[in-house]
Amino acid sequence: MAESPSRKLARLIRQLDAFLAAGGQLGVYSDEQARDAIAAALRGEGGLGVAVDGAGDTLTIRIGDAAALRLTLGLGTAALLAGATAAEFHAGTASRALTTTAVWDAAAPVALIDQATIAVDLGAMINGVVTLGGNRTLRNPSRAKPGQSGFIELVQDATGGRQLAFGSAWRNTATVTLSSAAGARDCLYFVVKATDRIEVTGLTRAIG
Prior knowledge:
Elements: H1 5-21, H2 31-43, E1 48-53, E2 58-63, H3 66-73, E3 82-83, H4 86-91, E4 96-97, H5 100-107, E5 110-111, E6 117-118, E7 128-132, E8 136-138, E9 149-156, E10 164-166, E11 170-171, E12 185-194, E13 197-204
Parallel strand pairs: 3-4, 5-7, 6-8, 7-9, 8-10, 11-13
Antiparallel strand pairs: 1-2, 9-12, 12-13
């Protein structure tokens, strides 16, 4: 006949009382016992090597097989990825892990070089800023990635009245009219539809 739960509980309580009455202790281990128990548990995990120093009561743990350890811990290849820098995020470098710091650093506006035809390298920036020293043309972007979006802040120099033209890849540019006051700041927004099709999605004038 199976033992009922109440009888089993009563029996276990009697056994525990007898154990404690005989001087037994629960959950008390020497340093050596704790060390050896931890070492035994770690040795059972794939990819780890464990050495015990009996004199110093220390454990030395080495990763012997990274692939086996990732499997044991339930991790994929992401466990070995290096963190991406802002430049690597811009360039779309493969096999990198993103951190919030890298993402926000990458979003900081990159200074573009003011020249007659302004180069826009979307593999080196998300957002940009340039002060116009004359009438300028925005060159067709290089290294554009479909789905990428951003803005370019356009600043009038101390003279003002500078105008902006666009390369053939830029679309919806007919209504782009910059502020003319000296030092005025406008913000041009865009999205990449294809490597040869950059849609202007808006212009905020005189942003201050």
